[in-house]
Write a structure and sequence with these properties.
By secondary structure, the protein is an all-alpha fold. The protein contains 25 helices and two strands. About 70% of the residues lie in helices and about 0% in strands.
Length: about 750
């Protein structure tokens, strides 16, 4: 109608409403089918809770069709969990042991990526529900039939009902970045051999789009498989290539255009174009990868004798770009073909390409099997809390005791502060919901038709508002939903609301206790500790690489990796997982410092207390502003640079550096490593180093601009690498850089 303003729901409500409609249709249809169609209350119970668990309790990322595929693959897992729970329910102790083991295994499965992590809470409920009396193995078939039907309805609803807007796959994002790299390389081979401002901006945007924090969870290549690892490495290679092309030094003066490394840049351009087509499923017309290998080999032979330092610097920078393009092309080949593409993979940088899937999963699990992994910490915390809740619910014979475990599962957080605030809001919501339920049950009584008619619209509202409005609304509305479900399964009185409130109170108290006892600060301290370890490992690698460069020697792919590669890679994995959890936790805001006392009668102790509080606030502010992403990029750049300098694509005899270049590169490496150690000590929460700014670049230190006589290309390549690492350190500490702006990667994001 003209003149009537249109109304459109916010995006968050639209997405929640679509998911709510699917779970309501699936859970409601299965529940009513078994309860009123076949008269099977057990099957009806498992049907409704299976659908609610995997769609309402779980947070599986992706579109409806992607979630449907995940649920379908997890159906056998649900059968196993229901069977185990049914048979272990005979005794409290056996159910508790099962809860401890199953709870840990399902929570620890989060190391496999966002999808296993999102599905874990729903799978936990698949064990929790049958692990309580009555002990009735004879009803196992009915339970499995109900759960299977509920999940089948959910798969159909997710796949076909109210489809979600499509997302851009990571392969397409990588292909777009490859297109940008092709355009940059093409510009650098024409005209005045420089990059236009528009191309530089496009390269920055394309590289930024590959950051994990900006990619939808369902599209992130975070799994342990060969293809996921290769696709992740493709993205990292593309970011490195775009950065190298954007920061390429100008062409030195002279009549010979070969000084610009044009042949290698043309090969980079063709390889980027081939990679983009391959990622989009197109078969390449030629073999740009082989051409790039040949161009890179010719480039590695070095410029003509007597070349100027400017030519050598340009030569080293083009060689870095060619190496990044080779890594991009190889990783994309493996990402598309899987282990069938391993023939192009060097053993070091692409160590995973030839490994079978079980071994890759074992490497992933083994890497996180320790107290320093936040995945391990979370798994221990939730499994102990669930086991304790099962003991209390079993020993005290609480009515509807599985609600205790459900509350423990949904309200336990990774920090004490977050758990405390969540529990407070959840209890308030549960109390309100319980009061409404008590009034409703007292008013309606045993009129089941009213409950049957009210359940679908209530579920629709609950699963729409709960995810958007927060845990208080979710608990209040879910209390109403479960009350209407149980009121149809058996006669219920107002005491059902009392049981619900008591169980939620018990479960939340258990979650709060274990949140206090087990790693109460979540990822905050663990992140600082892990990045400190990462920087110490990076410093060791820098010293080892520069020492080996100075000594020279025979190099070939057989060694497979630079010194300390595996330990540094493991430290990087630990830091990345801690950073991922840190981003998901709400940050503690420091208490505001008290205002200036306007009274003249202010004693010294008050001033000291004010100063102490201000110091604590300043430390907290520095931690909140800390550029953790720059630390992770420094680890990646250390690995990439070390492998590029010491693990070439072909066997090559590298003579030792002359005395002056050897001294210069060793001195510079020691300088960068020392600064890494200072920054590491500043970040380490267990250290006693004063948290004062660390001066990184000394104006009197000329190591980065030194041009010792007789220095070869490898010397200038090492200087480029060390300068980029120093720029990363400047981002970490927040100091203004004295080197090339943006060297070593795209701008790091803030937490």
């Amino acid at each position: 109608m003209a003149g009537v303003p249109g109304f459109r729901l916010p995006a968050a409500y639209r997405a929640a409403a679509r998911r709510s409609a699917r779970v309501t249709v699936a859970a409601g249809a299965a529940f009513y089918l078994f309860l009123y169609g076949f008269g099977l209350p057990d099957a009806a119970t498992y049907a409704v809770f299976a659908a609610v668990a995997m769609a309402g309790l779980s947070r599986i990322p992706g579109t409806g069709r992607q979630r449907a595929a995940v649920v379908l693959r997890l159906l056998p897992v649900c059968w196993v969990l229901i069977t185990i729970g049914t048979y272990l329910a005979v005794r409290t102790w056996s159910a508790v042991v099962g809860m401890l083991l199953v709870g840990f295994a399902l929570a620890f499965a989060a190391v496999g990526g966002p999808r296993p992590a999102g599905a874990a809470p729903g799978l936990q409920l698949m064990y929790i529900l049958p692990s309580f009396p009555p002990y009735d193995p004879g009803s196992l078939g009915e339970r499995l039939a109900g759960a299977t039907t509920g999940l089948a309805f959910l798969v159909l609803a997710e796949a076909f009902l109210l489809p979600d807007p499509p997302t851009v796959p990571y392969r397409e994002l990588a292909a777009r970045a490859a297109d940008s790299a092709r355009a940059c390389a093409d510009e650098l081979t024409r005209g005045n051999f420089t990059l236009s401002e528009a191309a530089a901006r496009a390269a920055l945007a394309a590289g930024t789009g590959l950051r994990a924090s900006l990619v939808p969870e369902a599209e992130r290549p975070a799994g342990a498989s060969v293809r996921d690892r290769a696709l992740s490495q493709t993205g990292l290679s593309l970011r490195t290539l775009l950065s190298r092309l954007s920061l390429l030094p100008p062409v030195p003066g002279g009549p010979d255009p070969s000084r610009a490394g044009l042949d290698a840049l043309r090969a980079v351009r063709d390889a980027a174009e081939e990679t983009a087509g391959r990622l989009r499923g197109r078969a390449p017309a030629g073999d740009a990868h082989a051409e790039l290998l040949r161009a890179r080999s010719a480039l590695a032979a070095g410029p003509e004798a007597g070349a100027s330092p400017a030519v050598l610097r340009r030569h080293a920078a083009v060689l870095e770009a060619a190496d990044a393009a080779l890594a991009m092309s190889t990783a994309a080949w493996i990402a598309v073909r899987g282990r069938a593409g391993a023939e192009r993979a060097a053993p070091g940088r692409f160590w995973y390409a030839r490994m079978p899937a079980p071994l890759l999963w074992w490497r992933r699990l083994e890497g996180h099997a320790g107290g320093r992994s936040v995945f391990f910490q979370n798994a221990v915390r939730i499994s102990l809390a669930l086991a304790a809740a099962r003991v209390i619910a079993g020993v005290d014979s609480l009515p509807h005791g599985f609600w205790v475990l459900l509350a423990t599962l949904t309200l336990t957080r990774t920090t004490v502060r977050e758990t405390r605030s969540t529990v407070r809001v959840a209890l308030t919501g549960t109390l309100i919901g319980a009061l409404v339920v008590a009034g409703l049950l007292a008013l309606v009584g045993t009129d089941i038709a009213v409950y049957a008619a009210a359940l679908p619209p209530l579920m629709l509202v609950a699963f729409t508002l709960g995810p958007v409005k927060g845990v208080g609304w979710a608990q209040a509305l879910f209390t109403l939903v479960v009350a209407l479900v149980f009121a149809q399964l058996a006669p219920a009185t107002w005491q059902l609301a009392e049981f619900r409130l008591l169980d939620v109170l018990t479960g939340s108290a258990i979650g709060a206790v274990f949140g206090l006892l087990a790693w109460p600060r979540g990822a905050q301290d663990e992140l600082r500790r892990s990045v400190a370890v990462l920087l110490r490992g990076a410093a060791e690698t820098v010293v080892a690489v520069t020492a080996q460069l100075a000594a020279g020697g025979m190099r070939e792919p057989a060694p497979s990796a630079a010194p300390g590669h595996r330990s540094l890679q493991h430290a990087l994995i630990m830091a990345e997982s801690a950073y991922a959890q840190f981003q998901s936790e709400p940050k503690e805001s420091a208490a505001p410092a008290p205002g200036q006392d306007r009274q003249d009668r202010q004693d010294r102790q008050d001033r000291q207390d004010r100063q102490d509080r201000q110091d604590r606030q300043d430390r907290q502010d520095r931690q909140d502003r800390q550029d953790w992403q720059a630390t992770l990029m420094a680890g990646h750049h250390t690995l990439w640079g070390a492998d590029r300098l010491l693990v070439p694509a072909e066997r090559v005899d590298v003579p030792p550096l002359a005395r002056d270049p050897a001294r210069a590169v060793t001195r510079l490496g020691d300088r960068v490593a020392g600064r890494m150690l200072l920054v590491s000590a500043r970040l380490d929460p267990s250290g006693d180093t004063p948290e004062e700014p660390v001066p990184l670049r000394d104006p009197d230190f000329d190591g980065f601009s030194a041009e010792p006589p007789g220095a070869p290309t490898s010397y200038y390549a090492a200087v480029e690498w060390l300068d980029s690492l120093m720029t990363d350190l400047e981002r970490i500490t927040g100091q203004s850089g004295g080197g090339r702006a943006g060297s070593g990667g795209l701008p790091a994001e803030r937490t």
